[in-house]
Specification:
The protein is of the alpha+beta class and about 260 residues long. It folds into 2 domains: about 140 residues, Alpha-Beta Plaits, CATH 3.30.70; about 60 residues. The chain has 9 helices and 10 strands. β3 and β4 form a beta hairpin. It starts with a strand and ends with a strand.
């Protein structure tokens, strides 16, 4: 913690308060991660399912806060695969899908949040009943305003399947762990490529963080790694930038990752 004239330790209650840091006499924040290693988690007793990288502190940070991170004192950039699992399913069908998968589904930003949730749950659930239960729970947990009835949720699922009929056969089948295995293989290739170039690279499943001066090299590694495995070109985009003045201040001050 950086103060104008002293160091201060916040109580547990203060840590969870949602107030400007200046209220506590702070002028900035610096964190040093104690969780610097990664491990892979496979599922159901096979190396064919799951396999994503876990264990690092940065993976639990909100995307907006990750934008404030620095690596070895340098500002960073985060690139991610746009709509990764939806595109992977289309590519598995031999279709070069390059559209925004939510445009035909949504008429508002609020609906986009709902259908992103529908997509996530549909890909990772084993059946429609399980999907409806999971969507209901997440809508309540995230306080997303929506008429939470079985009928309304079923209509959302049906609309998603209709708009994306070319991949509908994969939905509610538990395909998610297969896709996680594929994206973990892609992540491994990206990490190896960046390591060979001696560029620090932090994975967040479908996105990667590097010092900003290496953005082009990261983009190249992400494009090549995906194409080698899937046979199609992905869409790689910058992740979110800081969204308010306090986060912008943190970015200018820097959050050190050692």
């Amino acid at each position: 913690l950086i103060l104008s004239s002293m160091t201060k330790t916040l109580s547990e209650d203060e840590i969870w308060e949602k107030r400007p840091i200046s209220d506590f006499g702070l002028i900035g924040l610096r964190f040093q991660s104690k969780h610097q290693g990664l491990h892979r988690v496979f599922n159901n007793g096979t190396f064919e399912l799951g396999g994503r990288f876990y264990g690092a502190l940065h993976q639990s940070l909100p995307k907006e806060l990750r934008a404030c991170m620095r690596i070895n004192g340098e500002p960073t950039v985060e690139l991610d695969y746009s709509a990764l699992h939806i595109r992977m399913l289309y590519h598995m069908e031999g279709i070069d899908y390059r559209e925004d998968p939510y445009v035909a589904l949504c008429s508002s930003k609020g609906e986009r949040k709902i259908y992103k949730l529908v997509q996530l749950v549909s890909i990772n659930s084993d059946n429609e009943k399980q999907a409806i239960m999971a969507i209901r729970e997440q809508l309540r947990k995230n306080r997303i305003p929506f008429e939470i009835t079985d009928n309304s949720l079923r209509k959302c699922l049906q609309k998603f399947k209709y708009v994306h009929k070319h991949i509908a056969k994969y939905l509610n089948t538990g395909i998610g762990l297969v896709l996680q295995n594929l994206d973990s293989q892609i992540a491994e290739r990206v990490l190896m490529a960046m390591t060979e170039r001696q560029i620090p690279c932090l994975p967040v499943h479908d996105s990667f963080i590097v010092p900003a001066r290496h953005e082009d090299r990261l983009r190249e590694a992400m494009m090549r790694s995906y194409m080698e495995l899937m046979g199609f070109e992905p869409l790689v985009e910058r992740a979110n930038e800081p969204v308010n003045e306090e986060l912008e201040f943190l970015r200018s001050s820097g959050i050190g990752i050692c």
